[in-house]
Amino acid sequence: MARGMEIRANFEEQLERFFELLEQSVTTGDPAWMDPILLDWAKSSTETELEEEPYHVSFLINRMIALTIQVTRESLNKQEALDLLAAVIPIYSYGLEVVARYEMETRVAHISSEMDKVQKQLKRVDRSKSAFISVAAHELKTPITLIEGYASMMEDLMRAGKGVNLDSLLAGMTTGIDRLRAIVDDMIDVSMIDNDLLKLNFQPMQIGQMLEALQLEAEETVKHRRLTMDIRSFNGSKQWIYVDHTRLMQAIRNVINNAIKFTPDGGTITIDGRTLSGFIEVIITDTGIGISQDDQAIIFEKFGQLGRVDLHYSGKTKFKGGGPGLGLPIARGILEAHGGSIWVQSPGYDEKACPGSTFHILIPARAESPDSDMTRIFSALESPLDKEKDNG
Ligand code: ADP
């Protein structure tokens, strides 16, 4: 209401100015007196007006001509009306011409700035496409070289006809193939997230169990790298909630693998958590090299690490073994698909002082599946949620 009155007061002021200048033009016979207000009006179009109604000032002047004729006819005698219109109409026509020109110029400027924006976007897409190809090629090359090496060693041994044991060579090939598959799977996941095709399969689970399973998975690497993985028991870790178990585990695994990768041997990774209203927060802290403020802003973007091809070692757990930069974007996509979020805190990047990083993962604590069929199936089977309720 207040805004409406403000617009009206402003409009009345503008009209008053318009008629003052019109009078000035009629008295002096010089329509150029109208220029400042015509210019102001023509240039004041907002983006939306330009998109939806490009020539609205011309339209306004046309309406004012019609109104002037009407008012003149109603309040003056014929001769006076004719005299006034004869003086005013040429100025209005001049106004229309000027405004049409200004509006056209504003519109052309608007269109060319829009085209500029599109062109810049296209260039960015093009750059990230070619950067993607170079990182993808680099990432895929390492396991391919590995597989090639083992294959040629096997070939040599077979040709030599020696009855050798090929187990270790086959194991090496399998490692390379697994790595290839993991990279391609990550690429597929990113494309599904980008295209909103990630389908979640909600089932009840406890975060604590999931963390224990992830700890088991990482056990060997943790031992090998002499790390300590400390999983705390926190409020909410035993709560049954509906999530896509496989996807959420993948997201947390990506964060844990990074904590392992970016923490020097002998460091500590602590996994803690807490309940917040409607959410369970998992907090993963490491004593690693930390992340600069600038990087914190880009690591959740896909290929955020593109500028740092030096980091692409194709290592899943090796210290500082940067990958294609898809782990965190995938984690974020999965959490956002659940209605949760992920963010990082770190005092900065320092390989010597190792200030560490803390990743916060916010997971909605759903007591029911958003997928009603799932809820029905689980309630028919007497779900663990009921058992939990009965027990406690
Ligand atoms: P990738 O590990 O494949 O490079 P991610 O998306 O998983 O891609 O991580 C992106 C980048 O974020 C990493 O390359 C690294 O520079 C940085 N990063 C992620 N987690 C950590 C961490 N815990 N400590 C330090 N840097 C990290």
Structure described in brief:
Helices cover 62% and strands 11% of the residues. By secondary structure, it is of the alpha+beta class. Adenosine-5'-diphosphate binds at residues 254, 258-259, 262, 286, 288-291, 299, 304-305, 311, 322-329, 357.
Summary keywords:
392 residues; alpha+beta; 12 helices; binds adenosine-5'-diphosphate
Overview of the structural elements:
- The protein contains 12 helices and 7 strands.
- It is an alpha+beta fold and 392 residues long.
- Strand 4 (268-276) and strand 5 form a beta hairpin.
- Helix 8 runs antiparallel to helix 10.
- The longest helix is centred in the N-terminal third of the chain and has 82 residues, at 78-159.
- The chain is elongated.
- The two termini are 54 Å apart.
- Mean pLDDT is 84; it is low at 306-314.
- It binds adenosine-5'-diphosphate.
Order of helices and strands: HHHHHHEHEEHEEHHEEHH
> For the report, how would you describe the main beta sheet?
5 strands, mixed
Helical element count? 12
| Average pLDDT rating | 84
Low-confidence runs? 306-314
Classify the helix fraction into a percent range: 55-70%
Spatial separation of the terminal alpha carbons: 54 Å
| Bulk shape | elongated
Number of strands: 7
Structural class computed from helices and strand pairing = alpha+beta
CA gyration radius, whole angstroms: 34 Å
